[in-house]
């Protein structure tokens, strides 16, 4: 084969190989920007429904853990602890499963890493998942399991600081993130030295390789070190104190003081125990993950919500107090201690470059007629391109996680309490302000935990104090001098029970109805009651938001506030029967308004369907 023909082959074949390689490595992860926007607006019901539509039910699916992470975080944000409990159980079991990718560690990963690996999340995402599970246990008053889940979030980390200093790669800041115009992601409230990221780790590996060091898979050494996941220690201490495990509480608090001296006052308050209610508040959006460096082989993070020392202000009947940021997710996401190892991807990129260069040179420089050397060179060059094209970092991530976490401790004396929360971000007073008019007091065992995911975009319902829809928590509060189901033109969304029927009949509606008649109306409209007609974790969007489900979120949650303190469009009936009944009731209302207050009104029996 002539040298000219070899060059022609290279020019034809080599451009085609990247496309072929890309088809093997699978599609790049696409951030759910619509989901992010829903979360920023506090529309967690729609966000939860969006995740559920595409979530995998198969534990061996490569995105199963990511789907469960999103389902749990969105369900908790929407006040749906019971609904997400099965998903939390599946997530907990899968996160603790060892060796998920052991059978795919060499040949398949070297060829098609992105399409075969089971997603387990970066270390900080795994910690946040255990944090969410701990929150669920705390909301349900299961302090033993809350302590266990919190402890699971505090796994040992890898400290590369000594090797980074020796290689001169530390303290550089997240240059890739800066280049993308998103800031450096380090919190000014952090007790960690700022600026070390995965890019520094790879630079240090290059120095180690140049100097002939073997060390770890990346060519640099690390020291196992305790986690600096502050919220994990705080929740563990709270749970241990509630369980009477003083030694465990003291150990958790001592470690928290050591890793975050700025939280000394919070540690004192946790240990003191002068509180009966815990508010855990999340704010902002987690950083974006993307591929950087040669062949996109290095996973990098760019902040979406900037880090800030902005405190949380909480106001109750007893007064107002401010609380510092407990954990800045931007900080831990950019820290080398929380980085995934990049050895395989970097190796693929490096090997691919060498094979591409060496193979091309070998093929072109072979003597005319030396078909064997030319063929070997072409094969090496092709394999090199294949490896480089499939060395991209796995950019899957949970974009719906928060950017920062707060804890506030309060003592609530009343059965129902008005609570106001504010995160004055960006220097604008009241930039994110939330009023919760009906937060329950402490539970029967003397301690309650409430979780709130604060919207970062202001919504009118956030500060509304007028209840617009009665529900299973309120019952008939005579809000508008009548109680009538939402599906019949009213403002009540109680689930169909005997008590709900009595409330309607006291208002003069559905006088001759039985409980089964009432339930039949909802069956006709294909409206399901959470936990009654199907598995609880299949619960979808609430009927007030255009869905087909009836349920009541946890009181004091964003879901409860958004559903019942905002106006929603009137219900549009699916069946002639319900539409006709709603029209008859509307006519009856008009007739009532036309009668004198002393006139008796006969309400017709509206059970029969219109012809």
Give a structural overview.
The protein folds into two domains: 31-342 and 393-404, Serine Threonine Protein Phosphatase 5, Tetratricopeptide repeat, CATH 1.25.40; 486-594, no CATH class. The protein starts with a helix and ends in a 17-residue tail after the last helix. Residues 21-26, 102-112, 171-195, 214-218 and 596-611 have low confidence and may be disordered. It is an alpha+beta fold and 611 residues long. It is 43% helix and 12% strand. It is globular. The chain has a four-stranded mixed beta sheet. The chain has a four-stranded antiparallel beta sheet with strand order 7-6-10-11, with no helix packed on it. The chain has a two-stranded antiparallel ribbon with strand order 1-2. The protein has helices at residues 3-13, 16-25, 33-40, 44-54, 64-77, 81-95, 107-116, 123-139, 143-152, 161-167, 175-179, 198-210, 230-242, 246-259, 264-272, 329-334, 343-365, 371-389, 498-506, 515-524, 558-564, 576-594, and strands at residues 157-159, 223-225, 277-283, 288-292, 298-302, 312-316, 319-323, 325-328, 404-410, 416-423, 432-440, 448-454, 528-529, 549-550. Helix 8 (123-139) runs antiparallel to helix 9, helix 8 (123-139) runs parallel beside helix 13 and helix 9 runs antiparallel to helix 13 (230-242). The chain has 22 helices and 14 strands.
List the helices and strands and how they pair.
Elements: H1 3-13, H2 16-25, H3 33-40, H4 44-54, H5 64-77, H6 81-95, H7 107-116, H8 123-139, H9 143-152, E1 157-159, H10 161-167, H11 175-179, H12 198-210, E2 223-225, H13 230-242, H14 246-259, H15 264-272, E3 277-283, E4 288-292, E5 298-302, E6 312-316, E7 319-323, E8 325-328, H16 329-334, H17 343-365, H18 371-389, E9 404-410, E10 416-423, E11 432-440, E12 448-454, H19 498-506, H20 515-524, E13 528-529, E14 549-550, H21 558-564, H22 576-594
Parallel strand pairs: 3-12, 13-14
Antiparallel strand pairs: 1-2, 3-9, 4-5, 6-7, 6-10, 8-9, 10-11
């Amino acid at each position: 084969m002539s040298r000219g023909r070899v060059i022609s082959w290279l020019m034809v074949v080599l451009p085609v190989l990247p496309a072929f390689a890309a088809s093997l490595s699978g599609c790049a992860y696409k951030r759910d920007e619509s989901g992010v926007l829903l979360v920023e607006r506090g529309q967690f019901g729609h966000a939860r429904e969006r995740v559920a539509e595409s979530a995998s039910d198969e534990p061996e699916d490569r995105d199963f853990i990511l789907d469960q992470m999103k389902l749990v975080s969105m369900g908790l944000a929407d006040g749906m602890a019971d609904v997400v409990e099965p998903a939390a159980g599946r997530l907990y079991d899968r996160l603790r499963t060892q060796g998920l990718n052991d059978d795919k560690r060499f040949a398949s990963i070297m060829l098609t890493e992105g399409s075969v690996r089971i997603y387990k999340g970066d270390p900080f995402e795994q910690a946040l998942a255990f944090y969410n599970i701990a929150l669920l246990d705390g909301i349900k008053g299961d302090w033993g399991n809350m302590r266990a889940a919190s402890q699971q979030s505090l796994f040992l980390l890898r400290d590369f600081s000594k090797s980074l200093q020796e290689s001169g790669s530390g303290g550089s800041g997240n240059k890739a993130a800066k280049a993308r115009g998103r800031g450096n992601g380090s919190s000014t409230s952090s007790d960690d030295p700022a600026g070390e990221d995965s890019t520094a780790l790879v630079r240090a590996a290059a120095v180690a390789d140049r100097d002939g060091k073997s060390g770890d898979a990346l060519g640099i050494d690390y020291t196992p070190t305790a986690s600096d996941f502050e919220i994990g220690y705080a929740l563990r201490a709270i749970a241990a104190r509630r369980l009477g495990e003083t030694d465990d509480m003291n150990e958790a608090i001592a470690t928290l003081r050591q890793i975050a001296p700025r939280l000394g006052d919070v540690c004192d308050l946790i240990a003191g125990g002068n509180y009966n209610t815990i508010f855990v508040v999340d704010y902002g959006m987690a950083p974006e993950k993307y591929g950087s460096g040669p062949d996109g082989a290095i996973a990098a993070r760019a902040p979406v919500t900037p880090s800030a020392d902005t405190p949380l202000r909480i106001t109750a009947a007893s007064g107002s107090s401010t609380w510092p940021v407990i954990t800045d997710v931007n900080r831990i996401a950019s820290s080398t201690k929380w980085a995934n190892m990049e050895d395989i991807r970097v190796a693929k990129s490096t090997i691919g470059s060498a094979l591409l260069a060496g193979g091309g040179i070998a093929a072109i420089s072979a003597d005319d007629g030396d078909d064997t050397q030319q063929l070997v060179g072409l094969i090496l060059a092709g394999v090199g391109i294949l490896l480089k094209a499939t060395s991209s970092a796995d950019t899957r991530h949970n974009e719906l996680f928060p950017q920062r976490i707060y804890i506030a401790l309060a003592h609530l004396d009343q059965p129902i309490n008005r609570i106001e929360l504010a995160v004055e971000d960006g220097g604008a007073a009241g930039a994110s302000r939330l009023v919760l008019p009906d937060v329950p007091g402490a539970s029967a065992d003397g301690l309650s935990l409430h979780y709130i995911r604060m919207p970062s975009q202001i919504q009118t319902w956030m500060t509304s104090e007028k209840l617009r829809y009665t529900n299973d928590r309120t019952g008939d509060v005579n809000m508008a001098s009548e109680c009538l189901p939402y599906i019949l033109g009213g403002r009540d969304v109680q689930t169909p029970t005997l008590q709900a029927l009595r409330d309607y009949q006291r208002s003069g509606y559905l006088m001759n109805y039985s409980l089964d008649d009432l339930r039949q109306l909802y069956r006709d409209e294909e409206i399901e009651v959470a936990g009654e007609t199907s598995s609880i974790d299949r619960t979808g969007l609430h009927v007030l938001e255009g869905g087909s489900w009836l349920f009541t979120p946890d009181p004091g949650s964003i879901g409860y506030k958004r559903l019942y303190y905002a106006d929603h469009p009137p219900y549009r009936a699916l069946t002639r029967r319900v539409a006709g009944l709603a029209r008859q009731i509307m006519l009856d209302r008009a007739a009532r308004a036309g009668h004198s207050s002393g006139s008796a009104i006969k309400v017709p029996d509206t059970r029969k369907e219109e012809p």
